[in-house]
Each structure stands twice: as structure tokens, then as C-alpha cells.
Amino acid sequence: MVLVDTSVLIDFLKGQSSVKVSIFNEILSRDIPFGISAITYQEILQGAKDEAEFQTLKEYLSKQKMYFLEESTSIYEEAAMLHFKLRRKGITPRSTLDLLIAATAITNNLALLHDDQDFDTMAAHIPELRILNSI
Hints:
This protein is of the alpha/beta class. The chain has one domain (2-125): Rossmann fold. Helix content is 56%, strand content 10%. It contains 7 helices and 4 strands; from the N terminus they run E-H-H-E-H-H-E-H-H-E-H. The chain has helices at residues 6-13, 19-29, 38-46, 51-61, 74-88, 96-107, 117-125; strands at residues 2-4, 34-37, 65-67, 111-113. The chain has a 4-stranded parallel β-sheet, with helices on both faces. The longest helix is centred in the middle third of the chain and has 15 residues, at 74-88.
């Protein structure tokens, strides 16, 4: 199973070409199970240029497997612990939302498909964060 990050999904939806979009296209063509986080859902929708695009995006995203944060503090504790572990290694993550996406991938045992260097930096120090770089 794969968790597709906002960085890949935006490029895919805009019709842009990249290595990561090519991997996502391969996932789609081979019917490999994937999903998005609720955070990605919000990030994509808030980038809509107008109400019509918002509705189109909402319709598309509502058909995707969605991974929600747990209804307890444990996922937030895990994200905070990731931040803590990285800071102890001299790395300060730039985005709390990226930490929550990483924690969602780890908690659900999903490989993360992204196009955001911050995740590679995290994964270099957090072995539980699996990054999908090829199929």
C-alpha cells in the first residue's frame, strides 16, 4: 500500500511530468492500492482557484482511499516524537503537517510517495518511514 503525498498529487492533477508522477501513473495503471491522508485532502482543496475547481477536486478526492488521523492523541504524540528525534540529530523539520503525514504513513505501514526533500531527510533518520522511489 502507498500513501501519496500532496507534492505528487498536485503535479499529477496539473498534468506535469516528473519521476514521481510517472511512478504514480504506474500505480494507477497497475491498480496498486494507494490512498491519501486527510491532510493531503485539505491541502489539495485549499489550493483550488475557484469554487468550480474546488467541487471538481472534492469529487475526485472523495473517490480515493482516505487515511484519517486517529481519534486519540497517539498520532500527534508520534508526530511530536518524530520531531523530537530529528531535532536531537540536528534536523529541524519545517512542517508540522509533513510530520503528521509521515506519522500517518508509519502508523498505517504505508510506503510514502512524495516529491518533497523534507521527507527524504526524515526517512534518512527515521527508519520506520518507508519512501517509495520506484515500482
